[in-house]
Structures are given as structure tokens and as C-alpha cells.
Design goal:
- The complex is a heterotrimer of chains A (about 525), B (about 280) and C (about 325).
- Chain A is about 30% helix and about 25% strand.
- By secondary structure, chain A is an alpha+beta fold.
- Chain A has a seven-stranded mixed sheet, sandwiched between helices. In chain A, strands 14-21-13-20-18-19 form a six-stranded mixed sheet.
- Chain B has a single domain, classed as MetI-like fold (Orthogonal Bundle), CATH 1.10.3720.
- The chains are: A alpha+beta (about 525), B mainly alpha (about 280), C mainly alpha (about 325).
- Chains in contact: A-B, A-C, B-C.
- At the A-C interface, helix 8 and helix 14 of A face helix 7 and helix 13 of C.
């Protein structure tokens, strides 16, 4: 059993290299205050969109996660620098060689804010509960795919078993999605635990969430079971955190400049230079996971043809998108995974801008130039509908530019926007040709979440070769071999044109001079436990 | 009307002259955008993005290097189409109902006028928003939603006119000569009652431009990248601190159009009597 | 007098009922299938099962014949129940009640400002003897109603908050955050008030009694601010319903521009998410505000001018 732990350490090293290549300006950037860390203070953070639901187990978008992440602890944590899985609520664990059984030894002594203990029973309640949430927990459902059950071995030992190998599960236990909530929360139906009744064991507790307005959190007194990665032991420094919902990026920037907010999320690329010049600190970290991409709905008549999908892939000029719409902090996508993801494989050559080859492919597929420069076949226009969510400010501009680029190869794009809350649902309905979006996760298993025909299968794929590779990837505990499968999967996804990756998301946070030690966790989400105000 | 009187009329009103000129320009740009700009409103030169107004780009460029002037000019087509459609919906539906209520009278009149009262009791924008919720988003749907809110006002004015005209001698005469109710209505009542209704349509024009752009600003109009005046202003919001022209100039265009429409409609409402006298 | 009151009250109730019915027709009949819109509109329903549809149908009474489901909704509405927000799952009435204070704060500040500004412009324009000043003042309202509210708000943010750093651009916190949104909202409203008030002042000043008072040697100021003002105050009051409606409608745009919470923001998000029950609640609420404002005026006008017992009919827009 111990052997499998070591192999994870090796796996971590692989990640470390890829992380080091692109990582972040987070450390040091905020450590310039003259005073020393001290307890107390009220930090105001401006969020780019309404969390809609502050239950960490149900939500996935970045803005919901900043507040939700502070409310819960996870079994493990992941070192953002090395990718290594380290103790948090679990002081140690064993993973069976076939990656089907995971035994966690809890540290003991931790409690939820309602006083109930964080014990093996709570682990079972949570995992059972997440499986029950089903589609309400899109991420949770994929992390716990093939979940057989959790056995309470003793008070502080829980054994989680899966019907099939599930190599990504250990990393998943470090995410907010598998953060633990008290029984008083897990027994509630999904809708009842979005705005209220969220009881966790985290360093902060929920005071109040007013939709479209704010999330108020207060420090948990007596907290002493923080992640082994955190610098400060014991309770957090900050007394209170207010997360304010400020959807307009310009107004967010203004509120940081005027001192109404101490820190803001979603700094718009065009505001970066101005903030920097005004003496504010910008923290940024490239998000791992699936980059911003157009993901095909292969059940639609036009996108069923692989040549059309490949042409679209070649017809997007990624560099122009990054140069025009984004900033130096962002980079063009070079694979089906972002470069900070574990087992990322650079396939940048395949994603070079090649409009002539794209045109040739479309010619071969029978799409001939038609009126207005848009190609036609059998009287039908090559017009594709793209659905997108308004969660990331530059989305619209980026898509308008892509639209412009694709027009040059004779493809018409129509855009249909939705709120981030409706996005998954719109995709499930399937009335679109391409969906625009990204997903943040450190583990390459996110490819299985996105492209396996056995999951939600939003792309409506029937590709047994890809399924097999994704399954192998998930079933292989050996890190190096697993990375090989992950690399094959990335290549397959691009080869078939299932995905048109465009750019990697970078989380950019603007921070005033009085905020110190606001840190990114491994998946580029913020951690406020060590943060202090001068 | 003498030519000198007309000349004096216009000379005394430089504001009105300016207003007419603005309206003519805006209408021309809606129907013949090519007269004003040769640039494509939908595709730009990324390298020339966010440039302030210059001779080359009179309204500057946006975040994709598209010429903002061209987007405003082409945007007037969508915005004015929506406005005209909305006014037409109000004018046609309202006039028909008013005509019916005034001419038939009795219970039908009572019922129709009560319905009109109720429509007037719901704040116009809220009623439009309810319709948008039910119909969905898009330029045409927004136009219909805005148009419906003015049906009641048109109906009231038409009804009042019909009541005035109905008893006039020429209508009595037509009726006495054996014409059926419909020919009387269409040939005699409608033409003589329609003056104030048409004036009101002109008055409504400005209000409707504002309502349509407000809904477009809120994001219920055309999908991007189609330029609409309201969505152009809203698109510039993220650049308030860095590119003032993106919000300021499209907004100024809306304001100028509404102001001009208001001035012209006031002239239609009363001042023209001076010339015809 | 009591009869007049009863009549007005009955009228108000009728208008509310009719507003409910109108919104029912628009929101529940027009779309054809409101339940599937409701089921798909919210972010909470990730997958819509037939059971969920059936449940929603039952909750909203759509499993019954149309007339019955209408009666059902009306009966609930009479008890203040407009259903449940599809988006958040909260009762519509509570959602509106929660957001009401923020919007009241904004609209009352704007109303106060609009009355002061509007009356000020009208009084100054009718009082001054300088032609150019009068012309300038009288052209202000036309400007005020022509500038799009959202644009005025953005220009104010750009200049006052960003360029000069004088006032906060966003939020609901404190008195300072109300100033810019209130000014934005007051611009079109004050223009309407100024237009109506200037007209009624001119009429009042032309009345024989005003002329007589002047002839008898009363000072211009006395006639203007004494006799005429009192009589001229009534016509602007009759547009109170319109003004309240405009303020409420304006809050949709203003709250969005300034990132404030309130009824307006709820409206904008509800429309975007096609949250039918919330939109219906808001429409009826808008009509309620209109009716209450008119009712208040109806009660106030006889006190100002005992000769009038039946106030001018409610004019809108």
C-alpha cells in the first residue's frame, strides 16, 4: 500500500516540472507591508459574478468557489508548486494498487461549526450525499464515478471503494467539491442548501448570502485543523470577509481604486496595466484543466463531419485572440489540456493557424464558397451556433474575434449567450453546434469528465477508442503510465476535432497594498486562511 | 402658404432646422449606411484596437479594432427598424381599437377603454419586460414588446377623435346617403380623425427609441456582434476607464436622435399651423 | 366625500386585478408552454425530468383547465402568494420585500431630487424676465428626457467616480453610494415635473386673479410664489402615478449600471432567466405602486383645493 503512495509522489514531480514552467507570480507579490501579520480585520472582495449557490459540493464556477472554498476543509490538499497531495483533514491514507480502495486516517479533533465531529461517519455521509446529488454536482459525479460506498472502519478511519479503478480520486479529495459538510447540511435536498444551511469545518463560517449582492463570512474561532500547506496554524487572521457581487469589470476595477474593495476577482485584461501603474498588485496563475475551447456537439448534422471540425480547429488564430483580447498573462492553448495540468502534452504544432488547410478540408467535405463568403452545400449554409456563458469578461470579445476569423474560411458563427447558471442545462438540451467554455482541474481526468461517452456526454460522442484510453487513464495508478494514456487522450481529442482549444484561462486577482498573503491553491482558487491586512 | 412665410418660419427656428437635419441623417444612415461609411461594422483590424477618435476613425475603434462610427451607422438600421416596428404596432393596433371603441360605442367602448386604463397603469418598461420574458430575446421581439405599451395611448387618442368626427355633418351626410358603416368608417371617419394620432406617433418616436435602446442595453436585443445602439453603449462599459468613446459616442447619438425627434414632433404638434395659416 | 373615496378604492382594486390578469395572459398564456420555460429558465434545474415538469405543473396549477388554473393563481395572489422563483426557490413576495428597502432608498432620494430640480427649473423659468435665460431653462427638460438613463449613469461614473474620484461607483453601502444613482434616476423624472409644472405655472399666472393681484400692486414675487404656486401645484400631482412608475422602471437600468441591489436588479435578472413567477409579481407590484401613488394624490388634492372633489383622471406616460 505504501508503494502506491510513493508512486503518487513521483507523479507529483512530473507535475512540478510543468507547473514550474508557467507558474505564478503569487508568492512575494503581496509580501511588502511593513507590519507583521496580525489577527483581525475585515476584507472586502469583489466577485465578477453571482455565486448563485454557495454550496461547494454543487458549484463549479470560480466565483462561487472563492466564498465556498473558505467554508469547508478537504481530506487532502495539493501543493500548488509540486502538485503533491498532502495531509489536511486526513493525516495519512493508503491507496490500493488497483486504485479501487482508498483508506483515509482522519486527524481527529476537528469539528463542524455546529459542534458535530469530523469523523469517518461524516466522510461517508458526504460522499453518499454527493452521489445522491447526481447532476446537481457535475464535478462530484465525475470524481465519484463508480462509487461503491464508504465503510466506517473506526471513528477516524474511512474506506472508500469503487467498482472500477479510479486513479484521480485522491487528487479529487483535495478539491472544494469533496470538501466535507456537516450532517445538518448533507441531509438537506440540493435546493435547500444553496443560500443557507451550509455548515462546514472550514476556517470561515457563512453568515449570510444575499443573491446578486454579497456573501458574508466570519472567522471560525478555535479552528486548528488547517491544511499542512498553510503557514499559520490555528484560526485565520481575518475576522470577516465580505464577497460583493460586482458584475461589471470596469466598476470592479474602480472599486479597487477607490478603496471600496480590498481585492477584486476577474481583472479585465484592459485594466491590468492601469491597476499596475496605480500601484496595485496583480496576482495571477494559469488555471489547469480544459482551456477555453469550442467543444463540438457531434450529434448535429454539420459538426458530425470530422473534416468540418478539423477545419474549425485550423481556422482559429489563437495568438491573435490572446494578443487582441487578453494580455501577456494569458497564453494560447497548446493542447486539449492547459499547460499547468498534470500530464499535459504539448501539441502546439497541431494547433497552428492554417487557414489554407482549413479551406481545403472544407472544399473536400463538399462545402463550396457561397454568397456573402459563407460556404454552402446542398443549399445549406455552413452556419454554426455557438453557446457561451457570460462568466468570463473577455468571452464575448474573444468569440466575436473568432467569428471574424472563421468567416475568412467561409464559416458563419452565430452566438447565443446564457448565464453560467444555465450553461450546463443549455448544453444538455443540445441545441447548438459548439459550446464555449473551460473547466478548471489539476488532474487530467477532467478529459474523461468532458469527453467520455459514459458520463454526462455533453458532446454526444460515440468513440470507443477514446473511451478506452480515458478509462485506462482513470484505472492506472502508476503515474508515468497514466500520463501516457492522458497524452494519448489529448491527441485523440484534437485529432478528431472534438475540441477547438483557444486559450488558457489565467486567474487574475487585483489586490490593494494592505492585503498580504492571499494565496492560490493548486487549482488557482483563492485561500484566505493565511491572508492578513496591514 | 406663401414662400416668404415658409422661409421666415424656418429662419426663426434654427433648432428645428438642425433637428430635421439630424433626423434626416439618421434615417439615411439606417437605410443607406453605405453613404456614410465604407467600413465593415462586423470585422476590424485587431492591431488597430481601442484607438481614440481621429480623422481616420471619427468615433474611434473598439476592442477588436472595428470602426465605431461604422458600427453606430449600421446600428441605426437595427435600432430604427425596431423603433419603426414598435411605433407601427402601437399605431395600427391602437388606432384600430380606438376606431372601434369610438365608432361602435356602448359596452364595447367601455370594455376597451377599461383595458386601456389597465395597460396604462403598468409602468411601460415593466410591461415590455414581461412581454420580453414571454416572447424571448431579439430585435423584433423587443420592438413588439415596446410597441404594445403604446397601444393604449393610441387607442385613447383615436377614440377621442372619432367621437369628435362622428357627429360631423359630412359623416351624417354619408350615413344618410346609405353608405354602410365600414365604408363610412374608412372613407370619412378615419381620414379625418387620423391627424392627432399621426402627430402622437411622431411624439412617440423619441420615447420608443429610448425604450428600445434600454432593452438592448440590458441585453435583450440582437445577439452580438450585431450592433444596436443600446448594446453598443453596454459593450463599452468594460472600457469606461480606458476608452471613453465607446460609451460616450453611441449614447450621444441616441440622445441627439431623441432630442431631434422631440423637436420635430413639437413642431408638428402646433407650430406648423403658423405656416398653413 | 366617503362616496368619492369608496369609488377610488374600488377603482384601485379593479386596476390591480386587471394588472394581474394582464400579466397572467402575457406570461402564462402567450408563451404556450410556460412550465417548460420555467423548468429550463432556472439555473437550479440541471436536468428536467418529466416528474419535475409534472410537479411544476401541479404547483402552478397547470394540470387543470385554464380557467381553473387562473382562479388558482388569483386566489394565491390575493393572499400575497405569487409562487416561487424558478431561479432561487424563494417565494416571490419575500424576494420583492427583501429588495424593497434598497430600491425605496434610491427612488425616494431620486424623487426628492427630481421635485427640487424640476420645480426649481420651472419656477426660475417662469419668474425670470430675461428671455435667453427662460429659453435656456425651458429647453432643459427636453434634454433631460432625451438622454438615455443608462448613458447618463455611465457618463457620471466615468467622470465623477473614475476621473475625479469623488463618489463611489457601485454598491449599496452608505449615503454616498446613493448620490450618483439618484441623480441619474432624477434626470428624466425632474424633466417631466419641470415640463408639467412650468405649463401649469404659466396657466396660473395668466389667470385673472393673478393679473388682478398684480394690478392691485402685489409684488411679482408674491404673486408668483404665493397665489400662482399654490394653484399650479395640482397638475403636477396628477402625474404622480406616472412619476412613480417611471422611477420604478428606471431603477431597472440604474441599479444595473451602478451594481446596486434592489427591485430593478431583481427584474433584470428575472427577465434574463425567464423567471416567470418573479416577473409577474413585479408587474403587479409596479401596478400597485402606480395605484397607491394615484390614491395618495386623490386624497391630497381635495385638501389643496376644496373645489375639486373628483381629481383629474389618472393619466399615464
Amino acid at each position: 500500500m505504501l508503494g502506491s503512495r510513493r508512486s503518487y509522489a513521483v507523479f507529483g514531480l512530473v507535475t512540478a516540472l510543468s507547473l514550474a514552467a508557467t507558474a505564478c507570480s503569487s508568492s512575494g507579490a503581496s509580501g511588502t507591508g511593513s507590519s507583521t501579520p496580525h489577527s483581525g480585520g475585515h476584507l472586502t472582495f469583489a466577485l465578477a459574478s453571482d455565486p448563485i449557490c454557495v454550496d461547494p459540493q454543487q458549484q463549479g464556477n470560480n466565483d462561487a468557489i472563492y466564498p465556498a472554498r473558505q467554508l469547508v476543509d478537504s481530506l487532502t490538499d495539493q501543493d500548488p508548486k509540486t502538485g503533491k497531495i498532502v495531509p489536511w483533514l486526513a493525516r495519512s491514507w493508503e491507496v490500493s494498487k488497483d486504485a479501487t480502495t482508498f483508506t483515509f486516517h482522519l486527524r481527529g479533533g476537528a469539528t463542524f461549526s455546529d459542534g458535530t465531529p469530523v469523523d469517518a461517519r461524516a466522510v461517508k455521509d458526504n460522499f453518499d450525499g454527493i452521489v445522491r446529488l447526481g447532476a446537481k454536482s457535475v464535478l462530484g459525479a465525475s470524481y465519484l464515478a463508480g462509487y461503491r460506498g464508504t465503510t466506517v472502519v473506526d471513528k477516524n478511519t474511512a474506506r472508500v471503494t469503487f467498482k472500477a479503478p479510479n486513479a484521480q480520486f485522491l487528487q479529487a479529495t483535495s478539491t472544494f467539491t469533496l470538501g466535507l459538510l456537516a450532517r445538518s447540511t448533507t441531509r438537506l435536498p440540493a435546493a435547500k442548501r444553496c443560500t443557507d444551511h451550509i455548515v462546514g469545518s472550514g476556517p470561515f463560517t457563512l453568515v449570510d448570502y444575499t443573491p446578486n449582492k454579497s456573501v458574508e463570512e466570519r472567522r471560525r474561532a478555535g479552528y486548528s485543523w488547517g491544511s499542512s500547506l498553510w503557514r499559520k496554524k490555528g484560526p485565520a487572521y481575518l475576522e470577516r470577509i465580505s464577497f460583493k457581487v460586482v458584475p461589471e469589470s470596469g466598476v470592479r476595477t474602480g472599486s479597487l481604486q477607490s478603496g471600496q474593495a480590498d481585492a477584486i476577482g476577474g481583472v479585465a485584461p484592459q485594466d491590468e496595466d492601469g491597476l499596475k501603474a496605480a500601484g496595485f498588485t496583480l496576482l495571477s496563475r494559469a488555471n489547469p484543466g480544459v482551456p477555453f475551447a469550442l467543444t463540438a456537439n457531434t450529434a448535429r448534422p454539420l459538426t458530425r463531419d470530422a473534416r468540418v471540425r478539423q477545419a474549425i480547429q485550423l481556422g482559429v488564430n489563437r495568438k491573435e485572440v490572446v494578443d487582441t483580447v487578453l494580455s501577456r498573462r494569458y497564453q494560447p492553448a497548446t493542447s486539449a489540456l492547459a499547460s499547468t495540468t498534470t500530464a499535459y502534452q504539448n501539441l502546439g504544432d497541431r494547433l497552428a493557424y492554417a487557414p489554407d488547410r482549413a479551406r481545403k478540408l472544407l472544399d473536400e467535405a463538399g462545402w463550396k464558397p457561397g454568397p456573402g463568403g459563407i460556404r454552402v452545400k446542398d443549399g445549406q449554409k455552413l452556419s454554426l451556433k455557438v453557446v457561451w456563458a457570460t462568466n468570463f469578461g473577455p468571452n464575448q470579445t474573444a468569440l466575436e474575434l473568432i467569428q471574424q476569423q472563421l468567416k475568412k474560411i467561409g464559416v458563419q458563427i452565430t452566438l447565443k449567450s446564457t448565464s453560467i447558471g444555465d450553461y450546463v442545462q443549455v448544453r444538455q438540451k443540445g441545441d447548438y453546434d459548439y459550446a464555449w467554455g473551460n473547466t478548471t482541474r489539476v488532474d487530467p481526468d477532467i478529459l474523461r469528465t468532458s469527453f467520455s461517452s459514459k458520463g454526462l456526454n455533453l458532446s454526444r460522442l460515440h468513440d470507443s477508442a477514446l473511451d478506452a484510453v480515458l478509462d485506462e487513464q482513470s484505472a492506472t495508478a502508476d503515474a508515468a503510465r497514466r500520463a501516457g494514456y492522458a497524452a494519448r487522450a489529448q491527441a485523440l481529442v484534437l485529432e478528431k476535432g472534438y475540441q477547438v482549444p483557444v486559450f488558457e484561462l489565467t486567474t487574475v486577482v487585483g489586490v490593494s497594498g494592505k492585503v498580504h498573503d492571499l494565496d492560490f491553491e493548486a487549482s488557482s482558487r483563492l485561500q484566505f486562511h493565511d491572508t492578513w491586512l496591514s | 402658404m406663401s414662400r416668404r412665410a415658409a422661409a421666415r418660419f424656418w429662419l426663426r427656428r434654427p433648432g428645428l432646422v438642425l433637428a430635421v437635419a439630424v433626423l434626416v441623417l439618421v434615417l439615411l444612415s439606417a437605410f443607406f449606411p453605405g453613404l456614410f461609411t465604407g467600413r465593415d461594422p462586423l470585422s476590424g483590424v485587431p492591431a488597430e484596437r481601442l484607438q481614440p477618435p481621429s480623422l481616420h476613425h471619427p468615433f474611434g475603434t473598439d476592442q477588436l479594432g472595428r470602426d465605431l462610427f461604422s458600427r453606430v451607422v449600421h446600428g441605426s438600421a437595427l435600432s430604427l427598424k425596431a423603433t419603426s416596428l414598435a411605433v407601427a404596432v402601437g399605431l395600427v393596433a391602437g388606432s384600430a381599437l380606438g376606431l372601434l371603441a369610438g365608432y361602435v360605442g356602448g359596452l364595447l367602448d367601455d370594455v376597451l377603454m377599461r383595458i386601456a386604463d389597465v395597460l396604462l397603469a403598468i409602468p411601460a418598461l415593466l410591461l415590455s419586460l414581461a412581454l420580453v420574458t414571454a416572447l424571448g430575446f431579439g430585435t423584433v421581439k423587443v420592438a413588439v414588446a415596446v410597441g404594445v405599451t403604446s397601444v393604449a395611448s393610441f387607442a385613447r387618442i383615436m377614440r377621442a377623435e372619432v367621437l369628435r368626427v362622428r357627429e360631423a355633418t359630412f359623416v351624417e351626410a354619408a350615413r344618410a346617403s346609405g353608405s354602410g358603416p365600414l365604408p363610412v368608417l374608412l372613407r370619412h371617419v378615419l381620414p379625418n380623425a387620423s391627424g392627432p394620432v399621426l402627430v402622437y406617433a411622431a411624439v412617440e418616436f423619441g420615447t420608443v427609441v429610448l425604450a428600445v435602446s434600454a432593452l438592448s442595453f440590458l441585453g435583450y436585443g440582437a445577439e452580438p456582434p450585431a450592433p444596436e445602439w443600446g448594446s453598443l453603449v453596454s459593450g463599452g462599459r468594460d472600457y469606461l476607464a480606458t476608452a471613453w468613446w465607446l460609451t460616450t459616442l453611441p449614447g450621444l447619438t441616441i440622445a441627439a436622435t431623441v432630442l431631434a425627434a422631440g423637436r420635430v414632433s413639437r413642431a408638428l404638434d402646433g407650430e406648423t399651423e403658423e405656416i398653413s395659416r | 366625500m366617503p362616496r368619492y373615496l369608496v369609488q377610488r378604492l374600488l377603482q384601485a382594486v379593479f386596476v390591480l386585478w386587471a394588472a394581474f390578469t394582464t400579466s397572467f395572459v402575457v406570461l402564462y398564456l402567450l408563451p404556450g408552454d410556460p412550465v417548460s420555460i420555467m423548468a429550463s429558465g432556472g439555473g437550479d434545474t440541471n436536468d428536467v425530468s418529466p416528474e419535475q415538469i409534472a410537479e411544476l405543473k401541479q404547483v402552478y396549477g397547470f394540470d387543470k383547465p385554464l380557467i381553473e388554473s387562473y382562479g388558482d393563481r388569483l386566489w394565491h395572489a390575493l393572499r400575497g402568494d405569487f409562487g416561487i422563483s424558478v431561479q432561487s426557490g424563494d417565494p416571490v413576495t419575500r424576494l420583492i420585500a427583501d429588495q424593497l428597502p434598497a430600491t425605496l432608498q434610491l427612488t425616494s432620494a431620486a424623487l426628492l431630487l427630481a421635485v427640487v430640480l424640476g420645480a426649481g427649473v420651472a419656477l426660475a423659468a417662469t419668474y425670470t424676465r430675461r428671455r435667453w435665460l427662460r429659453q435656456t431653462l425651458l429647453s432643459l427638460p427636453a434634454l433631460g428626457v432625451s438622454a438615455p438613463t443608462f448613458w447618463v449613469g455611465l457618463i457620471l461614473v466615468q467622470l465623477v467616480s473614475f476621473r475625479w474620484g469623488l463618489l463611489p461607483a457601485i454598491g449599496n453601502e452608505g449615503f454616498r453610494s446613493v448620490i450618483l444613482p439618484a441623480i441619474t434616476l432624477a434626470v428624466p423624472t425632474s424633466a417631466v415635473i419641470a415640463q408639467v409644472f412650468a405649463k401649469s405655472l404659466r396657466t396660473a399666472l395668466a389667470e385673472p386673479y393673478a393679473q388682478t393681484a398684480l394690478a392691485k400692486g402685489a409684488s411679482r414675487r408674491r404673486v408668483h410664489f404665493g397665489h400662482a404656486l399654490r394653484n399650479a401645484a395640482i397638475p403636477p400631482l396628477t402625474v404622480a402615478g406616472v412619476v412613480v412608475g417611471n422611477l420604478l422602471a428606471g431603477s431597472v437600468v440604474v441599479e444595473t449600471v451602478f451594481s446596486r441591489t434592489g427591485i430593478g436588479r431583481v427584474t433584470a435578472t428575472a427577465v434574463t432567466a425567464q423567471d416567470i413567477p418573479v416577473v409577474q409579481g413585479l408587474v403587479v407590484f409596479g401596478a400597485l405602486a402606480f395605484v397607491l401613488a394615484n390614491l395618495a394624490v386623490d386624497l391630497l388634492v381635495p385638501l389643496l383645493d376644496p373645489r375639486i372633489t373628483a381629481a383629474a383622471p389618472a393619466v399615464a406616460r
